[in-house]
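Below: protein 1.
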Amino acid sequence: MKILIINGPNLNLLGKREPGIYGATDFDTYLASLRAAHPAVRIDYFQSNIEGEIIDAIQRADGACDGVLLNAGGYTHTSVAIADAIGAIATPVVEVHISCILAREDFRHISLISPVCRGSIMGFGLDGYRLGLLSFLR
């Protein structure tokens, strides 16, 4: 099984950025532990702060991966283009958010990508990626 994790803008700052919301663990450390816990799964990783690069990664995943775990960051609430890319591919996408976006500012309550994703996981910290991975393993 091959899973691609795509993280969007500012998620390269995990471990430093607002640790009260996002935790104190950087993503590379978390990713190493996730890979170690699931050695039979190939877990690839891509992060970009650029919307078009995220769209390109989603499109490349089509047929090349069994699933995508996508944390689109702030683009979750603004990007019709990312939603369109998800809707255009056959590979299932699970939306992941470290924080509970429904418990934050009003503008974060709306996800443009949720309607085209297989499901959404939020509010479980970095463990949301593991939970998303488990959804593909069942």
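Below: protein 2.
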Amino acid sequence: MLYMLQQFSDQIPIFNLFQYITFRTGGAIITALAFVFLFGPALIKSLRVRQGRGQPIRDDGPIRHIIEKQGTPTMGGLMILAGITMSTLLWADLSNAYVWIVLLVTVGFGMIGFYDDYLKVSRTSTRGFPGRVKLVLECLIAGIACFFLIQVGEAPFSTSLAFPFFKDLVVDMGWFFIAFGAFVMVGTGNAVNLTDGLDGLAIVPVMIATASFGLIVYLAGNAVFSDYLQLHFIKGLGEVSIFCGALLGAGLGFLWFNAPPAMIFMGDTGSLSLGGALGAIAVAAKHEIVLAIIGGLFVLETVSVIVQVVSFKLTGKRVFKMAPLHHHFEQKGWAEPTVVVRFWIISVVLALIGLATLKLR
């Protein structure tokens, strides 16, 4: 919305700032952060009253969680979603299709997560939305988003998979790209959901990945920088940086309330929407493989669950003391802050490795 002010830069020179993506990204960060700070306490108070006993805690989880986390409200993802949406609409160029597509996935996944959280709280049970129905809806939203990404992009690159480390290695997947892209979005959404199990554990790696992809989409959407780094130029993609800034700001605001001991949990409302957003950004930027590197922590958490389930069904034995992986280390005696901070460090290292692929081509 504010982007339109640059049209009046001839009369008011300072309005010329609004044409720069970097300036508007900074504005989006500050706006989303301020929004969550201002309205977060009122939302937490309202959710605490409405939810009563708060988010149901797994009976088979660490005993400490049942004692310490009982009564903490969930659906904190609402403040993140509101901050992202408001800030993006305020600072982004609303004629840009990439912004709307990423926002569609984020809000769509958030609505699914919200209904799942609502069922859990209203039933006072850890069982919410039926898993298959949930996946079908996620695939539907992601599939629609991928279809529009193909329409917005330039053929045949819009249906292609690009490989990092190689300048010209791309594989045209044709219309199968819709299924592939949807898998990335749905997989990332659920991977972040699995990671969200400790205070502050999921939101910081999400912000690290978002900051990394904010840089990637800015470079890939800039003809000069993409040519220098030998990236595939995607016209209009740079505007997604404003969305990344809004997510980063809203995430920082949420972390203020989610830092140990958490005043609120993001719930599926937050984890599904944030994971879906990361997946959508990666697919739009043609950096799906890089997402697996930068978001490697989410991959590890997901793989730990898969390995645990497969091992138990085939042999009757568990590989980990408990899955996902962060609970395994808790059961080994690691304090919650220790697990969280060390996982943050892993996220930073993986992000640096992922960003290194921008030059190693």
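Strands lie at 160-162, 170-172.
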